[in-house]
Design a protein that fits this description.
By secondary structure, the chain is an alpha/beta fold. The protein is 56% helix and 18% strand. It has helices spanning 35-45, 75-82, 117-127, 133-138, 142-153, 155-183, 185-205, 211-223, 225-240, 253-267, 272-301, 306-326, 342-360, 362-408, 449-452, 455-472, 489-502, 515-518, 545-557, 563-580; strands at 2-10, 13-19, 24-29, 61-69, 93-101, 106-110, 113-115, 128-131, 415-427, 430-439, 447-448, 477-481, 507-511, 523-531, 536-542.
Amino acid sequence: MLEEVRISGLGVIDEAVLELSGGFNVVTGETGAGKTMVVSGLGLLFGGRADPARVRPGAQRALVEGRLRVDPDGEVARQVSDSGGDLDDDGGTLILSRSVSSEGRSRASAGGRSVPVSLLTYLADDLVAVHGQADQQQLLKPARQRQALDHFAGPQFAGQLTEYQRAYQRHLQVRAELDELSTQARERSREADDLRRGLAEVHGADPAEGEDIELIAEEERLANADTLHSAATTAHEALLGDPASGSYDAADAVSLLAAARSALDGAAAHDPALGALAGRVGEAAYLVADVATELASYVQTVEADPARLAVVQERRAELARLVRAYGTGLAGPPDDGQGGDLAAVLGWAKWASARLGELDNDEDRIAALAAEEASLSATVAELAGRLTAARTETAKRFAAQVTGELVALAMPHARLTVAVTQAEGFGPHGADEVEIKLSAHPGAPALALHKGASGGELSRIMLAIEVVFAGADPVPTFVFDEVDAGVGGKAAVEVGRRLARLARLAQVIVVTHLPQVAAFADTHLMVEKAGDGSVVSSGITRLDDQGRVKELSRMLAGLEDSEFGRAHAGELLAAAAAERAGRAP
C-alpha cells in the first residue's frame, strides 16, 4: 500500500506531498491545476517513460519518492533484497524514488540502492495497477482482450499456457529443421556423392604421411646416380687409394697419415709434445680410414635405375594430383595452413569421412524429425484444445461477473459477452481469437466494444473489469485517472459506489472531476493552483470535513461558497458515508 508520495519539479507541481490512506483516496482540483501530474508522478515511480518535457521550467530535475508498506516475506521484498536494497527499520516499509533530469537522464532507487528502472516495472506488477484513458483504448485491441481473459483464468490456466508454449516452440524448431533438411536433400545428396568419389580416389592412392618428402629425396638420388657414384669413388681413392690399379706408389691420405705418425713416434722420445701430436695424427688416420670404408659401401649402393626412377616420378605425379584436388582447402573445410601438401590431403580425407557420416545419416535424421514433428503437432493441437476449452469456460464466468458489475454501474440492460473463436493455425497463445462484445440493451446485437460502447460506457466497462480482476487476483493498489469520463448523474453515483466497494479489497486512488465519485472517498486530496502572474504552481492539500464540503460544492455548482451547493455537497457526503457504513442513505 502507498502511504506517501512526494513530487517535486514535475509539470506545474513545485513541491507536493500526497498523504494516502488505505481504502478509497480521491484527488480533485480545478482544470489545469495539475491532477494529471499526480498520475504522471505515480507512473514514473513505477517505471513509466521518462519525458524531460514534463520537468518543471527552471527546475533541474523532476523527482518522485514513494513510501510503501509491503510484506517483509513477499516477492517485492525479495526482489529488492536481490538488488542490494533494504526495507526500513520496521522491516515493512519500502522507499522507491525516480528522478528525471531536464536533459532526459533518468535514475531509480529501491530500498536505498540505485537500481535499473526496469526493476521498478517488475515491482509494479505486484504493487499497483495504473489505469487511464489510454488503457481504455488498449482494451479495444483483441490481443489485450485475450490477455485480460487469460489473466482472469488464474494460475492453473497460466500453467497450461506455459506447457502449450513449450510444445509450440519445440514444434517450430523441429519443423524448421525438417524443412531445411528436406529442402536441401538434393544438394546434400550431391555433396555426399562428391565426397565418396574423392575418398575413393584418396583411398585408392593410399598415401602415407611424409611419403611425398621421401619420394622427392629418392628421385633426386636416382636422377643423379652417376654423379653420386663418381664423387664417392674419387673420394674413396683419395683417402685410401685404388687397389684395383695395382700401383702402390700413388699417395693417399691414409698412407700419408701413417708416414706422419711414424716420423713423430721416432722423435717423441726427445719431446713429449711430439708424442701428443703423434696421437692426434693417429686418431685422424683412424677417422679417415673409417670414412673411406663408408664411402666404399656407399659406392656399392649407388647405381642408375631408370625403371625405379620412372616409378618414383609416376607416384609423385599421382600424389600431386591429390594435393591439387584436395590439399588446397578448395574441396573441403577452410585451409588451415597445411594446404598444398600431402598432410592437407590426409586432413581432408579425415574431415570428408566425418562429413559423409553426417550426410549419410540425413535419411535417418529426417525420419526421426518427421516422427517427432507429427507427435509434436498432435501435442500442440491437444494442448491448444485444452486452452480453448478453458478459455470458453472462463469467458462465460468473466462475462457473467462483468455484466453483473455493469448492472451496478447504471447499465442494467447491458450484457457483456466474450467470443472465443478458432483462428487459422496455431500461434504462441493457442488457436483462439478473443473478442469482448457489448449488447447495450435487450434485443440489440452484440457488437465489438469500439462499436457498441460510448466513451462513458467504456469507462464503466473498464471499471467493471478491474473490480472483477480485484476479486480474482488483487494487487495492493489501483490507480484510476478519470475512469468516470463521460459519466454523469446516477451513473456517476454508481461508479463511486463500485470504487468504494473495490476499496474494501485494495487501496484505490482516483483522479476525478465528479462530486458523486469524490463523495465516496475515505481520503480527499485537493490539487490547488496558485500563480503570481508569471509563475504557476500547484500544491496538494488533504481536506477535512469542512474542506470536503467546500470542494464538492465547487465541483457541483462552481461556487464553493454557495449555500445550496454546500447543502447538496453535505447530502452527497452523508449518502456516501451511509453507503460505506452499510446503511441505506
